[in-house]
Amino acid sequence: MARQQQILRVAVQSNQDVNDPAAKVAILEQIQKKLKDHGMVQNMTVKWKEHPDGKVFHKKTEIEEF
Q1: Cα dist from 52 to 28, 39, 43, 49, 56, whole Å
Q2: DSSP SS3 for 11
Q3: Cα(first)–Cα(last) distance of the chain, in Å?
Q4: pLDDT of residue 59
Q5: Contact 45/54 with Cβ under 8 angstroms?
Q6: Superkingdom of this entry's organism (predicted)?
Q7: What's residue 5's pLDDT?
Q8: What is the pLDDT at residue 64?
């Protein structure tokens, strides 16, 4: 059976350093809880995609669009 992959972009508003390991864990846990609440975590792995610089989150610039 082929694995299906889906990538979602997440925008986070926070005054904290969201690239802090503890913050990334807390945000990922919240995402997993929301998916579980909607019955969507069975046979699913949720993880961060790190950029080459090792960060998950980058500040959005004025010219950047989703």
Answers
A1: 20, 33, 28, 10, 9
A2: coil
A3: 32
A4: 82
A5: no
A6: Eukaryota
A7: 81
A8: 53
> Letter for the amino acid at 38?
H
Q: Give the span between the Cα atoms of 8 and 11, in whole angstroms.
A: 10
Find tokens 């969507």 and name the residue: 40
Cβ atoms of 19 and 57 within 8 Å: the answer is: yes
Single-letter amino acid code for the residue at 45 = T
Say which amino acid occupies 4: Q
d(CA 22, CA 3): 29
Candidates 58, 62, 63, 66; CA nearest to 19 is 58
- Residues 15-59 have pLDDT tens digits of 889 999 999 999 999 988 988 898 886 778 889 999 899 899 888
Residue whose structure tokens are 């609440």: 37
Is the pLDDT score of 6 beyond 60? yes
